[in-house]
Amino acid sequence: MSQKKPNEESEFLCLTRQENKLLEAAGDIYGTPPNGTDMAFTHAVFCQVGLPRSRVDGHEFMRRSGAAWVNVQAGYLDEGNGPVQQLVPYGALPRLALAHVSTHAVRYKTREVPIGESAAQFLDLMGMEHDGRRYTSLRKQMHALAACRLQIGYRGRTFNGQAVEQFDAWLMNKDTGQKALWPGLMVLSEHFYTALMDGAVPLDNRALHALKGSALALDVYAWLAHRLHRIEGRGVILYWKSLREQFAQEYEGKDPDKNFKKDFLPALHKVQAVYPQAKVKQITGGLLLIGSPPPISYKR
After folding, report:
1. What is the pLDDT of residues 30-87, one digit of tens each?
2. How far apart are CA 300 and CA 39, in angstroms?
3. CA distances, 152 to each of 45, 66, 72, 77, 266 (Å)
4. How many helices (H) and strands (E) in the chain?
5. pLDDT (tens digit per residue) in 102-125
C-alpha cells in the first residue's frame, strides 16, 4: 500500500490542478462581465457540426446534424520540396486556431490574420502552454488546416473551398531540427471570410481557454452558445441517439449511445462551469434544453 500511495497522491493532485483551472475560469466568468478582449468568434456552422476529434483513417471526414453538414478533405502542402499529403485536421488545436483567426477577421474586418512571429507566440495567443510536443502538434495541425478543403452546407447553401487561401509552411531545418520559418500571417479565402462575416457566433475567450484540453467540450460549448438563446417556450428535448449522431457518429459497438453518454456528460459539466447561464438538464433518455442568454450578448 505504501508503494502505491505516492502515485495515488500524484494522480489526485494532477486532477485537482485541472479542476482548479476550470474553477478559476468559472469564477472569473461568473463574477466579471466579458470585455472586448474576451470576445471570440466562430462560424455558425462549426457550432452545429465540428471537425473530427481524433485522427481520421483516410483523407476525408463527413459529419452532419439536421440541415447542417461539413465535409473535410485532406489536401497537399508544399513543405519545401514539393507536395506533401496532409492529415485531416483533428482535435482541440485546429478548433482553437480557427476561433483565433475568425476572431481577428471579424474584429478587424480583414482576411489577413497575424499568427505571431513564432510558434510560441501563436500558442500564447491561443492560451496554450509551451512544450516540444505541442510545437510538433501545432505544426502538424496548422499544416493540415491550411491544406484541407472544406464543404459546409446548410439549408440549400453550400460553401466549397478552403478556409485558408495562403499559408507558408513551417519549414524545419533538417540539420538542427529547429524551425527555419514561421509564416507570421495566414490569409483567409474570400469566400470563407464572407461566410464568416455573415454568420459569426460570439463566444467567451476565457471559456475557450478553460476548455482547451477537450475538443468535445469545445464543441459542446460552441453548440450551446449558438443554440440556447434561440429556444422559446418550455424547451427542447434531445435524445442520446440524436445527440450522438450530431457529435459522435464514430461511436460504434453494442450500445453506442451509452458509450457516447459516458463521454458527453463530463464534457457538458465542464461547459456548464464556464457558461453559467446555460440551462441544460439531464432527463431520462437525453437532455432538456431551455432558453438561455448567450455567453456574450449579440448586442455587444
Report:
1. 888 888 888 999 988 888 888 898 899 999 998 887 777 889 999 998 877 889 999 9
2. 9
3. 7, 13, 9, 21, 29
4. 9, 14
5. 999 999 999 998 887 777 778 877
Which pTM was predicted? 0.85
**Grid coordinates belonging to 234:** 418550455
Displacement of CA 257 from its chain's centroid (Å): 22
Over residues 221-246, the mean pLDDT reads 93
CA distance 73 to 145: 10
Which sequence spans correspond to the domains of the chain? 1-32, 42-200
Residue written as cell 434531445?
A: 238
Distance between CA atoms of 57 and 51, rounded to whole angstroms?
14
Closest by CA to 146, choosing from 45, 212, 83, 74, is: 74
